Amino acid sequence: MFSAVIDRPVGFKDSFGNVYPINYGYIPELMGGDGEEQDVYIVSHDQQQPLENFTGKLVAIIHRRDDTEDKWVLAPVNEEVDKTLIAEQTQFMEQYFDFWIEMVEETADSNP
User: What are phi and psi of 85, to 5 degrees?
Assistant: First the structure.
């Protein structure tokens, strides 16, 4: 489980004119490849509402071949998401990069 601060909620418009259809933020005190806190997309099957904070499971990592950082993808703990949904919901930003999606399986307890 990871907790994120949402600094670009649904509907946020950045300086390039991109409007965020999903919540986007960062994980405090976890540094990413660019020397800043790790960026995260919040992906869900349900209609998303603007959030300030989110706690969920890590479901994927978006690797960018032409950028210095990866983007993490978090989802609600009770939802299963796939690469198709992730690609659809992050396309608004990832369309500008050469990327691939690595699905991640998080286990709550690895002890038998």
Answer: -65, -45
pTM of the model: 0.89
β 24-31/37-42 pair status? antiparallel
Rounded to whole angstroms, the Cα distance separating 50 from 63 reads 25
In which element (H, E) is residue 60 found? strand 53-64
Count of H helices and E strands in the chain?
1, 6
User: Percent of the chain beyond pLDDT 90?
Assistant: 78
* Per-position b or e across 65-103, b if 16+ CB within 10 A of its CB: eeeebbbbbbbbeeeebeeebbbebbeebbeeeebebee
Contact (CB, 8 A) for 60 and 106: no
7-57 confidence digits (pLDDT tens): 999 999 999 998 999 999 999 988 888 888 999 999 999 878 999 999 999
58 vs 18, 55, 103, CA distance in Å? 24, 10, 9
